[in-house]
């Protein structure tokens, strides 16, 4: 069975790296399923030839709930979001629906017969009672990348080597450089005119074969509420917004008694808080060890709580997590705030007088604006866990992109790989190719068979979406046949510099031990590296 699409209007949810990449790709896709994207002799976008006189998609709107494009690369250095005490008090702070429930719409907006549009919205005052949106970025001033700058860009963004090859940071880059590239890209191609900022998508539902979006736009001290209809929707909201915290006995009481002493790695901003303090890191992934490297040389003590013999995503992380001077413990079983600030571990040991607890425990997949009835999309718990957490998977997708129940709903950013930005580009290109009928998806039954087979092979967990560098080429080959005419994966996925990835792991490891050993002062920002 084949399916022909007639998609002319498209909504993109999110204007981070994935959303902006998707917007550019769709703007340069023609009705006949070909692309206008061409490159000059230097391998850069040939801006003189990319004009699209016959666009496949006549209306594209990107909705971004922040006041600037960039997603996680739009920093909010001075006002991080934290889990508020009232959510801790629910003792369900591990539940994404508690952390971020669906936004309520005004009563009059839901009244029968009312039809509020973008040009004629319902305007209300801003009551301020919205809870936490989790829209702010988790990056901090000291943050630098963990993959090479060459792979933190798309083919639309020229590669620029920012510093000499023998510099301390190369081939990694700073967060400032990544943000600058995205903002420059947006300005260079005038993408801003397709983007509506301060616009939260509250609900997406299927009505009369169209996707109905309910939008909440904040304008000063007013809120504009309206609905708008689209043929296709691309969810590009990322995976680093809503922090996962494990539910642990005594944690809520601890947080209430010792305010600002417990936080997720997303909320970290300033290493000086650790000076002469006893610090516990729960989880030793990339974000946890990024922070630990700054804490270790100035803290009184550093303890890590992690799964026994756990292998982290990169081998060097596993070694760094248990390196000299770090007190290594298994999982936490209880917080006892009234007993000398004691924390107990599953082997029966404990530590006391803990000043700070940093959770590096991942993020939730969470789409409060979607419903499973219309979309078939759900987030599955991993293993024997009771609620979704940082190890969960998104179910109901084919190739991490197309909703099996209704492929006019798609996702960009679910695929996990160190080659994240190339994955954004090839995903966007595959969507463009399928939606212009350049290529046909397998039948829903075949897609379900494929999904079930993969679940059996890798499990119903985060690994389902993960492609290490050595396997990413296989994913690229799976998508090759869906790309628009004229789009070549070799333009998207640069295989000539994969040695940069190996070099980046070596550099990151070296920097970790230099920071941890106090050889690089924490006052020296990476801008000077």
TrEMBL record:
Annotated Pfam families: FMO-like (PF00743)
Keyword Protein biosynthesis attached: no
Gene3D superfamilies documented for this protein: FAD/NAD(P)-binding domain (3.50.50.60)
UniProt keyword list: FAD, Flavoprotein, NADP, Oxidoreductase
Record's keyword annotation contains NADP: yes
InterPro entries, per the entry: FAD/NAD-bd_sf (IPR036188), Flavin_mOase-like (IPR020946), FMO-like (IPR050346)
Annotated family: Belongs to the FMO family.
Protein name in UniProt: Thiol-specific monooxygenase
Organism: Zygosaccharomyces rouxii
